[in-house]
Amino acid sequence: MNFKNILYVFACLSFAVVVGAAIYEHIAVVPRWSAAPPASLSMFQGKYGLNPTPFWIAIHPVTLLLLAAAIILFRKTGSKVYLLITSVGYVIVLIITFAYFVPELIAITGTPYSEHIDDSLTKRAKQWEILSLVRLSFLIILAIAAFLGLTKSKM
């Protein structure tokens, strides 16, 4: 296996980490905080509150750099199209994430704790969750495209 292929594998692995982390959050974290806000938001608050931000800030640039390097190295192969589809789709997802998902998540999870369940906040949380699942589905499709490109490198 040469350097080009190893780099492509690492690009796929990094993208799979993004997808895996999103799946984990949707299985283990999102249902808990979105259940009954603001009472259910206590997991984000206080000195030891959950803070996934450092992970997401680190993984996105690494993934983008690996995908960009793979596009450059595989520009004359059949893999290029798969890498471009994955990369362009990922950039679109990131733009939407930073325009809607991050600000809305900060607004919801930053709500001060209260035993009172806020129905409008619960609706916003559920809408965020549903839209985020759509985003996750799109990321899974992009990951499949990236992995399919591994088989096209010599074409």
Tally of strands: 0
Task: Provide the succession of SSEs.
Answer: HHHH
For the record, the count of structural domains works out to 1
Structural class: mainly alpha
Summarize the structure.
By secondary structure, the chain is mainly alpha-helical. It is built from four helices and no strands.
Architecture overview:
By secondary structure, the chain is mainly α. It has one domain. Helix content is 74%, strand content 0%. It has helices spanning 3-33, 53-73, 79-109, 119-149. Helix 1 runs antiparallel to helix 4, helix 2 runs antiparallel to helix 3 and helix 3 packs antiparallel against helix 4 (119-149). The longest helix is centred in the N-terminal third of the chain and has 31 residues, at 3-33. The radius of gyration is 18 Å and the shape is elongated.
List the helices and strands and how they pair.
Layout: H1 3-33, H2 53-73, H3 79-109, H4 119-149
Helix pairs in contact: 1-2, 1-4, 2-3, 3-4
Which tags fit this structure?
mainly alpha, 155 residues, 74% helix, single chain
